[in-house]
Amino acid sequence: MMKIEKSLLAAICILPRLVFGQALDPALLTKPLGESWPTYSGDYSGKRYSSLKQIDQSNVKNLTLAWVSKVTPGAGAAGGGGRFGGGASAVIIGGEGTADMGGGGFGGASSVRASILEVNGILYFSMPDNAWAADARDGHELWHYFWKTKGGTHIGNRGLGMWGNWLYMETPDDFLVCLDAKTGKERWHKEIANFNQQYFSTMAPIVVGNHILIGTGNDLDEPGYVQARDPETGDVQWTFYTVPVKKGDAGLDTWGSLDGAKHGAGNVWIPGSYDPETHLYIFGTGNPSPAYTNPPSRAGDNLYTCSIVAVNVDTGKMAWYYQVNPHDTHDWDSTETPVLVDGEFNGRPRKMALHADRNGYFFTLDRLTGEHLVTGKFSEAANWVKELNANGQPIRSLEKDSTVAGSLVSPNNEGATNWPPPSYSPDTGLFYVPSNEAYAMYYLTETDPRGAMGLGGKEEDGLGTMGGYLTAIDYKTGKVAWRHRYPGTGGGLGNGILTTAGKLLFAGDLGGNLVAYDSANGKILWHTHLGRVTNAPETYLLDGHQYILVAAGDTLYAFTLY
Amino acid sequence: MTVKKILLVLILTSTQVMAQPPRAVRPMRSPAYPDRPPADPATVERGKALYGVQCNFCHGSDARGGEGGPNLLRSELVLNDQKGELILPVVQNGRGEMPKLNLSAAQVSDIAEFIHSFRVGGYDVSRMTPLSIVVGDAQAGGAVFKTKCASCHSVMGDLKGIASKITDPKILQNTFLMPGGGFSRGRGGVNVPPTTVTVTLASGQKAEGRLVRIDDFMVTLDDAEAGQRTFRRDGDSPKVEIHDPLKPHRDLLPGYTDKEIHDLTSYLVTVK
Q: Which of A165, A420, A486, B94 has the lowest CB atom count within 10 Å?
């Protein structure tokens, strides 16, 4: 027994060396999602629809655990190491700060909440301050990189980007770190935002051609932006601010003052999608700031916050925008992934961008022009909208802002949905999104007419929910095609969705199960209890076997058919 | 051997966890955005006096903006400034609408220390907090009570003296909207009966108890006699009925206007 384990272990140790040295082929990035998972959404479209169909409705019931691998964040990690429990790699340490441990607020800091890259049989994944490589055949840890942080909000890390042999990670204290994918050794790190201004950086870098596209987060009224960086040097290629920052900037007339605009936030903290035909990088922007108070400096629609924005990836110039939440007052970021779909609309083929927003509304846009096509309401409870205007934008009821006496509002601040990735299946023509029907009382606690800073000035008291759902939306009408309610009296949001050509939908439920559904109707076909599923399931093909990969806290689980 | 060692470490670690207050065992980590080290109070006082004379009118007494001048606390320049070195050229040369001021480097450094003495963060603490949330019409609230609440509750019966038991109107308001919910959790002093569940097996046999957890595949109930029992679920079998004591409150949420809520609160605060 012992001997067999040893020889297996030896074999596993050799295998990675055989596949090492195979850089990411850029052509892989523009192919529809299949054998690998080379970027945040698998491919550029944001569909999270895999063409793999070895696992399908007829055999998913035979899905079996292939391997389990646990990782330990921090400088003194004892490591994971797949099914034999050993084999942790030495920790490679970088960073400009002093903190030795992982952990932090919001529960995101010691969980894999990220997209996991799969390239040439190797997995690359992250937590805030931590990056790992592991063998995709058994989860065996190959290297672990730890960044000693200065601080910053440790809410989560959404994954790594890859260009050739190099990997890119954002850190909570605002650096872009470039790692050698073979060894995990740091090549360089560059500051991407000002820590003194209380930025924090969580986004998965997106690689398009020779651009590394990044974004940051901020809760202190500082302006949001998207930047392109050089993959070899990390130098800035262009910067696109999501709010006006100087006289003459477009959109300034939608703010009360220039000072208000350049402290208006609109941070981009979730990757966008990319259309290789038009060279447009299409992403969602965050809430305006201050989030809950309405000082005169914030009077107007507050462009380009809470918008879907298309920027030419070569020039950094905006091609179009559509604001899904004019003058947001509930901190409902619109960073949820826009999903790029080619399909029929009103009897003719259209190239579209689909977006389900934290505010409870779903949008279909023409992605070439930004033309509005459909607005649908996917949250029954959402009660903050007075009317849809002629351009399909939801216009808020003023009385649903935070008030001294309290306003009963749905969604709650977490939203009818949030950043966890949605999915679209061309087999069904349906868009899938985790959703929640929660109510909260929003109290204004700051009566200073100058408002508060950041997220201050309100108290939010949750009142429970009418349910958490897996929701399927018809993009042609914006109507809910079906939805599956998670049982019980509670609710909440699932952590993201995968669909496959096997006519399957994989998602974690609210009870800690990984579940396979029939993507046409939500019928349950298979499940396994993992405790808590913390990212969107993914899939890849290796040695002729399709794997389903998912994270549950600090542990990765892979399933396959034998 | 290794396993034993790991176990030992685990046991030791968990003992430590038990023995120490939770704060002490949290991983060592610097705060997200460290506060600036406190300055000499005498310096801050000097700076405050100078600020009051030279800066107050335009930038406000709390540096959050005033007549024409912007909020300094969130200004990029001020956030990057350490001891006045970035503020000094702006003060001495003027910028945009700001006139140049005749202040020495030492004086600007004192002013900078005063500005830097304010805590700056995204979770801004409210300063001008409202005195009361009670703004409604108590009489109209009485009428709302009759239509929305009186089928289950009575101010002479179960809610007698409710405003004396829950003296904070905000907690009272949250509590009538959703007992035990939100801000009122553990503070409203209201005993919310637990959600229960009835599981009816194919044989007709029934199990009943407090609902512990439920998903599409499993239901666990806590039966006072038998303890926790878990039943496998396969679609509609066994039959599962959840009894949510808060359902009437939940069902009311979509129908309320904010005015009804505020009126009802104004009425209930009189039920002493």
A: B94
Shortest CA distance from B213: residue in chain A: A488
Those residues with Cβ within 8 angstroms of residue B192's Cβ, 6 or more apart along the chain or in another chain? B179, B180, B245, B246
Give bridge partners of residue B8 from the DSSP assignment. none
Contact B79 A196 (CB under 8 A): yes
Choose between A78 and B254: higher pLDDT.
Answer: B254
Q: Are strands A122-127 and A117-119 parallel, antiparallel or unpaired?
A: antiparallel
* Interface test mutation site (partner B, options A292, A298, A453, max chain B beta carbons within 10 A): A453
CA distances from A368 to A76, A276, A279 (A): 49, 12, 10
Burial class of residue A335 (count of CB atoms within 10 Å of its CB; 0-12, 13-18, 19+): buried
Residue B22 has pLDDT above 70, yes or no: no
Q: How far is residue A323 from each of residues A105, A241, B186, measured CA to CA in Å?
A: 31, 15, 40
Measured between CA atoms, how close is A452 to chain B, in angstroms? 6
Residue A200 Cα, gap to closest chain B Cα (Å): 9
At residue A276, does pLDDT exceed 90? yes
Using alpha carbons, select from A402, A240, A390, A389 the residue that is nearest to residue A321.
A240
- pLDDT for res A486: 97
Chain B contact for A349, CB < 8 A?
no
Q: Are strands A49-50 and A545-552 parallel, antiparallel or unpaired?
A: unpaired
Of B60, B150, B31, nearest to A149 by C-alpha is B31
Kindly list the residues from chain B whose CB atom is less than 8 angstroms away from the CB atom of residue A457: 124, 126
A443 touches chain B (CB under 8 A): yes
Q: What pLDDT does B40 receive?
A: 95
Show Cβ contacts of residue A221 under 8 Å, excluding neighbours closer than 6 positions: A263, A264, A265, A289, A290, A453, A454, B74
CA B144 – CA A153 distance, rounded (Å): 44
Whether a cis peptide bond, with omega within 30° of 0, leads into A486 is no
Query: Which residues 6+ apart lie within 8 Å of B111 measured at CB?
Result: B47, B50, B51, B54, B55, B84, B87, B91, B103
CB neighbours of residue B172 within 10 Å: 24
Tell me the C-alpha to C-alpha distance, in Å, between residue A369 and each of A115, A282, B2, B97, B163. 29, 12, 62, 40, 58
Q: Backbone phi, then psi, for A239, in 5-degree steps?
A: -130, 130
Q: What token pair was written down for A297?
A: 């400096």
Which residue is associated with the tokens 């460290």?
A: B34
Q: Count Cβ neighbours within 10 Å for each residue of A276-297 and write b for 16 or more, e otherwise.
A: eeebbbbbbbbbbbbbbbbbeb
Phi and psi, residue B224, nearest 5°: -50, -35
The residue written with tokens 């646990």 in the block is A70
Please report the sign of the dihedral spanned by the C-alpha atoms of residue B168, residue B173, residue B177, residue B183. negative
Minimum distance, in Å, between the CA of residue B50 and any CA atom of chain A: 23
CA angle A126, A129, A133 (to 5 degrees): 35
Whether B33 sits inside 8 A of A488 (CB atoms) is: no
Write out residues 482-511 of A within 8 Å (CB-CB) of B.
Answer: 486-489, 509-511
CA dist A508 and B132 (Å) reads 43
A395 contact B CB<8A: no
Residues 155-184 of A with CB under 8 A from B: 172
E-strand ranges in A397-523 read 407-409, 423-425, 430-444, 458-474, 479-485, 497-500, 504-508, 513-518
Closest CA relative to residue A177, chosen from A107, A222, A126: A126
Contact, B153 vs B258, CB < 8 A? no
DSSP secondary structure, A32-71, as one string:
PS-S-B-STTSSTTS--EE---SS-TTTGGG-EEEEEEE-
List the end-to-end C-alpha distance of chain A, in Å, as a whole number: 22
pLDDT in tens, B250-261: 999 999 999 999
Determine if residue B258 is left, alpha or beta; phi over 0 gives left, psi from -120 to 50 gives alpha, anything else beta.
alpha
What whole-number distance in Å separates Cα of residue A84 and Cα of residue A99? 30
